[in-house]
Design a protein that fits this description.
heterodimer, A: alpha/beta, Rossmann fold, 2 domains, 5-stranded parallel beta sheet, two-stranded antiparallel sheet, 9 strands, about 50% helix, globular, B: mainly beta, Ubiquitin-like (UB roll), 5-stranded mixed beta sheet, binds zinc ion
């Protein structure tokens, strides 16, 4: 492929990406259009937004949520919905300060309402303190507490939907992890419908874009920031699955999309087959749980 | 050609023209995990690189 042949399929400018299904090359401007159009199409196809919605965006300040806020800021007005950014400050020294600054800069620039909730405020202690002596479980503990913190922030701002920045890689990895763990209930669990009184519907508009596409999008729009990585390592299984899937995606392009189609098929066939199972509430905090005491209360030893 | 690796170290490779994908694989880098900037512009990995080109490889970290 010589430079003379690497041209945008739409305008003959030099191409920055080559995409499949359909096979096309796109210049910077047309890639930015194409990526946005795919996100908008996914939101419309899956009816993620209703007119009058107040959408809370979980804004960590990292790359995915930055792209998510940029895109929702562009599309929500036309869909008749409002926007508020919520950031959870877990209290992770040496990491959160800079991402928090990135989040503040972005909402300031876009003029988006921004609410910050902290673990210290919600749970009495910051994550670093909660994790003393069990640092290896960092991501698992943080994941459980952050989900609760986001749910709490959603209530405080009166949002009707929660949008998160999960991308195609994240979602495909989760599908494969659930398969490898034999966790069918988790594979089938669909959080996009919500649970009245407890959870608002959760939407993932970026699940149609790969991590590589999101970073490309941010670089081209001048919003990519090299931010520190979280000091708490992810789960061992996820990092193995990430490497494995990246290899498969390279040798068999479209693997991640096919995994998502498989998951949707499983959910579709499960929906008609089985009635929703009964839910109980935690006897300590009153939130939904499958047992008597929820994961949050167990982690915090309440 | 000059290759700037994700850790910002620089390697000078003298070789005939090759696709960037071939170069990445020789370096043990999966093309789906990086973005390639050739002479200051993002390019698809099937573009060729020649003597005198500068190739910067950006690895995007996870999270966020
Ligand atoms: Zn173009
Ligand atoms: Zn509880």
């Amino acid at each position: 492929m010589t430079p003379g042949e690497n041209l945008c399929s739409l305008c003959n400018e030099p191409a920055v990406v080559r995409l499949v299904e359909p096979e096309r090359r796109l210049c910077a401007a047309h890639f930015i259009e194409d990526a946005g159009a795919r996100v908008l199409a996914a939101m419309e196809r899956e009816r993620m937004i209703s007119p009058g919605d107040r959408v809370a965006v979980g804004l960590s300040g990292g790359k995915d949520s930055t792209a998510l806020l940029l895109l929702l800021h562009r599309f929500l007005p036309a869909l008749g919905a409002g926007l508020v950014a919520i950031t959870v400050d877990e209290g992770i020294a040496g990491y959160r300060e800079e991402t928090l600054r990135a989040a503040r800069d972005l909402t300031g620039e876009l003029g988006v309402e921004h609410v910050i909730v902290t673990f210290a405020d919600l749970f009495g202690e910051d994550l670093d303190t909660i994790l003393v002596g069990r640092e290896a479980q960092g991501c698992t503990v943080c994941g459980v507490l952050r989900r609760r913190a986001l749910a709490e922030a959603v209530k405080r701002v009166g949002a009707t939907k929660l949008a998160t920045g999960h991308n195609l890689d994240d979602e495909a990895q989760s599908v494969l992890m659930n398969v490898l763990r034999g966790d069918l209930p988790r594979l089938r669990q669909d959080t996009s419908t919500g649970q009245p009184g407890h959870f608002v519907p959760r939407i993932k508009p970026l699940a149609v874009l790969s991590e590589k596409e999101i970073v490309t999008y941010l670089l081209l729009r001048g919003y990519f920031r090299d931010l520190p990585e979280c000091p708490y390592a992810g789960t061992a299984l996820r990092s193995e699955v990430r490497t494995m899937l990246a290899g498969l995606e390279h040798r068999h392009p479209g693997t991640m999309v096919r995994l998502m189609q498989f998951r949707d098929g499983v959910r579709e066939s499960a929906r008609s087959a089985e009635p929703a199972k009964a839910l109980s509430t935690c006897r300590i905090c009153g939130e939904l749980t499958s047992g008597e005491v929820c994961q949050v209360c167990r982690l915090l030893d309440r | 050609m000059r290759i700037i690796l994700p850790d910002k170290s620089v390697r000078t490779v003298s070789r005939a023209s090759a696709t960037i994908e071939e170069i990445l694989i020789e370096l043990g880098i999966n093309p789906t995990t990086v973005i390639v900037v050739k002479n200051g512009t993002i390019v698809p990995e099937d573009v060729t690189a020649d003597e005198g080109d500068e190739i910067r490889i950006l690895r995007f970290s996870h999270g966020g």
